[in-house]
Amino acid sequence: MHILLIEDDLDLGKALQAALRQGGFSSRWLRRGADAPERLDPVQQDAVLLDLGLPDGCGLQLLKRWRAQGAATPLLVMTARVGLADRLEGLDGGADDYLSKPFEIPELMARLRALLRRSAGQASENWRIGDLTIRPREREVRVCGRAVELSPREFDLLNLLAGEAGTVVPKGKLAQKLAPLGEALDFANLEMYLSNLRRKIGAERIGTVRGIGYRLLT
Q: Domain count of the chain?
């Protein structure tokens, strides 16, 4: 999964990127609001970590603009503003969670995982889709209780399908999300990874909508 990090503090930004990488996330780090995307594209990022106190303006303006545009991407606000009015303004402005500085990075990571679970409609860290169990944090998969060994790319593909279980996920979206920091995978490689995944978890668990995409069956 890919995280958009907007934080001007150099030391904190480096520490957060390291923690995200260790947690299995890719990330893009920006230090100014002016460099932030005009719109949030759910294909480009799965969640946003946003500092409100940016050097070239208030991150709250970014948050309100994105929400006014209809963006539903999970977003966690980080700020040194600790007053109740500030917290309420951030939450009412569209933040899904709010963390006051200074904070412990393990807490931020736990809150981020919780946001992503809720976004995927999962109640716990162990995602269950039928007899399929996925543990995103440990990058483990079980089918009927049996451990299944997946390559990193195969796991990421399954995780993407599980995040929208029962829904058709377009090929282009999968191809881009599997290579968030570079050029999207070509469809031939995507289909190769999908074929391997079907072989390992059971072909009947992944449906194809010809010309559109794939769906993890529930």
A: 2
Token readout for 104 is 């412990």
131 plus 64 within the same structural domain: no
pTM of the predicted model over 0.85:
no
Q: Supply the pLDDT for residue 149.
A: 94
- Which CATH number fits the domain that encloses residue 25? 3.40.50.2300
* Structural domain containing residue 43: 2-119
Question: Minimal CA–CA distance to 79: which of 89, 69, 64, 67?
Answer: 89
**115 in the same domain as 8:** yes
Name the residue with tokens 């603009």. Answer: 65
Q: What is the pLDDT of residues 109-124, one digit of tens each?
A: 999 998 888 887 776 7
Q: Which residue has the tokens 């100014």?
A: 32
Element (H, E) at 196: helix 187-201
pLDDT digits over 27-39, tens only? Answer: 999 998 889 989 8
| CA nearest neighbour of 158 among 195, 116, 125, 189 | 195
Claim to verify: residue 156 and residue 65 sit in the same structural domain: no
What does the pLDDT read at residue 10? 93
Mean pLDDT of the chain: 87
